[in-house]
Specification:
about 170 residues; Nucleoside Triphosphate Pyrophosphohydrolase
């Protein structure tokens, strides 16, 4: 059960569980979360995914993302993974949710009901090198310009979430 994730319908109702890699091979809709941590200067903390990740290694993305375990509350899972990946914890608030589906070069498919959380933190992370290759603070203007100039440097879900946040005038 350690590698099981929560399968959901399009309303985020749990319909079962599945082994993580099998779920990603078959493209089954599952619950996930993406955390965006901002500092008091309005900068977003990005992480560059570890080069050993099973998909999208080395790409830049939001501060933290993962899947809750069966029986685990999504916000508590987000706080747990923040500690495991980035080495810190902060208060989180759900900003929105999205459903997306994307196939990767290695034939894995991410099909997620993704809960997007915002938090505030002003320190430096203590990154786990098995999860994170690098990190940085970036202003939203610099980020949007870089995503436009270098879209292949960023994860699919991150770009989808950024577009929605911009369209909803969150920034």
């Amino acid at each position: 059960m350690a590698d099981d994730i929560i399968l959901v319908d399009k309303e985020d109702n749990q319909i079962g569980t599945g082994e993580k890699m099998e779920v990603h091979r078959k493209g089954i809709l599952h619950r996930a979360f993406s955390v965006f941590v901002w500092n008091d200067q309005g900068q977003l903390m990005l992480q560059q995914r570890a080069l050993s990740k099973y998909h999208t290694p080395g790409l830049w993305s939001n501060t933290c993302c993962s899947h809750p375990k069966p029986g685990e509350n999504t916000i508590e899972a987000a706080k747990r993974r923040m500690q495991e990946e980035m080495g810190f914890d902060c208060d989180l608030k759900e900003e929105m949710s999205i459903i997306y589906r994307s196939q990767f070069d290695n034939d894995l498919i991410e099909h997620e009901y993704d809960h997007v959380f915002f938090g505030t933190y002003n320190g430096e992370p203590n990154i786990n090198p098995e999860e994170v290759n690098a990190w940085k603070w970036i202003s939203i203007n610099d980020l949007l310009n870089d995503v436009k100039a270098n879209p292949d440097n960023y994860t699919v879900w991150f770009k989808i979430i950024l577009d929605r946040l911009r369209n909803e005038n969150v920034f």
